[in-house]
């Protein structure tokens, strides 16, 4: 069964707005059942480009028309358990926000779609609607349902099933349309909007509103979970002058005149342009059937991954501004639309198991969820906001369809971190002390575990040496498996291993929960603390424990390349029973004004964790990474000065890896 669906492409031409000349060069015509948009070449106006589309909406078309023809049928898909993504794309001021939000007198797609979803809800039992709303501003994700002062930057993560999600994004159940409007209009006020010369209320961020429709069937113990993602992209702007060092003052002032962008607007603008350019690259790569699609190059494409060549149903509304100054942008938009048309998605029905997942044996019960910190909750919403959900393994679907996607069972409980995040109002020292204490306790526990493990190993070795007669009471490992006692001991051994595994599983989970609850600065501090402890252990040649601690640090700073390299090194040493030799310590240089300033900036959190902790001991890194920030790379350059060949960190890393592999081969 072929269940692929192309992204549906719709173009919309907005009427001219204040002081704008209607451009006859952009026209919509109809030939049979096809529509064409014709655009004059901006450089040679005698040349006309013609783009065919199955549906185009000209200046006279209404919001109602677009909704009825294009969006209404998709709300059916949502109720069927599919994920539907609708994007508004186009140059700044082309009418994206107008199309998505509309006005009070002429509502856009969002209010109309919500109304339609509620209409169906009224006719059907056991339906729940919940909303979440986020914006991607300068490549950072913020929750729009939370006051901006309290809204942290949210991390984008991937679950075991490869689904990308925004961690800690709140979601709110809504029972009535009016309730939705109140929440939505409040949240929209939090969106980053600014006035530019091209648009009085220009969106400076990409906004994604998600409405989740859950239809439960208590008799079957199943629920369908459809989603409607409504995406109002920020508009691209011509800011090229900013990136050109050689741009003349005249050109700069011309562009400033056109966009009205001051430096901070320009920074926003270049972030918008960058993410839109990655979006273009993703579409291009999908068209080419490339083996690597650059989803990870921006948060926007990561979050929209499912809608671009994934399991979502898609509708792209390309908005077009008619004025002559936008002609090149119109061509860009139409080219983007043409390329996106070829993208195929494979929609899947999202089904959830309502039955609680079987509890893992011996697992501890979750303690009662504490109330959310006031900073995380918009006033009056406390009881309705669901914390990030815990997933317990995939559920099995009984529905006979190849398009059914059995989601992991989602348990909407508040999961308190095992070590609760520091309460607001604590001083930096207090936070550090808490982290240090938590890390120390963990290390002590692990040391004790290692000691125990060692004792068991020694015992079994001794009993092996003493011979089988004595071993029955001492070691389960050397038992004669045919004897009754032997069976019991093997059972005991298995049980013990199982308990250890369960404990590991629990600790791992609590670790992840703790990581996601900490602020980026606290995460970095905790990572640094683990690295310092790990180094201390590796210096004592306690490599297994050092490795474990480095891995723990990695949970807090997953992007630290040097840390990853260190883990590989120690893993290799442990595997091959070789001692681990960190690179020799380098005498600390006398502090110059420049290095003091660099250290100060590092202290404010701009440097890598491993580098920070190494600096404390003056130990230069064994490996370097080209991904490191400027000052680190500069320190590598300094180290390499005097050596015959300029050895980049990457080259150095490759060299060491090659020698490790060579040693492996030799063995
Ligand atoms: N179809 C339309 N009919 C009437 N007015 C429209 C239409 N489309 C857009 N407008 C008006 O044009 C102006 C710019 O539109 P809008 O803010 O929606 O653009 P945008 O593409 O979202 O811009 P940006 O990317 O800068 O946020 C607004 O004043 C809006 O009311």
TrEMBL record:
Annotated spans, Disordered: 345-417, 448-485, 577-626
SUPFAM superfamilies in UniProt: P-loop containing nucleoside triphosphate hydrolases
UniProt KW Coiled coil keyword: yes
Family assignment from sequence similarity: Belongs to the TRAFAC class myosin-kinesin ATPase superfamily. Kinesin family.
Biased composition (Basic and acidic residues): 345-356, 448-464
Keywords: ATP-binding, Coiled coil, Microtubule, Motor protein, Nucleotide-binding, TPR repeat
Residue span(s) of domain Kinesin motor: 6-343
TPR repeats: 527-560
Gene source species: Somion occarium
The protein's name in its UniProt record: Kinesin-like protein
A Pfam family it matches: Kinesin
UniProt biased composition (Basic residues): 583-594
Annotated binding of ATP, by residue: 90-97
InterPro entries named among the record's database cross-references: Kinesin-like_fam, Kinesin_motor_CS, Kinesin_motor_dom, Kinesin_motor_dom_sf, P-loop_NTPase, TPR_rpt
Domain of life: Eukaryota
The UniProt record lists the keyword Coiled coil: yes
Record field: compositional bias (Polar residues): 392-405
CDD domains for the chain: KISc (cd00106)
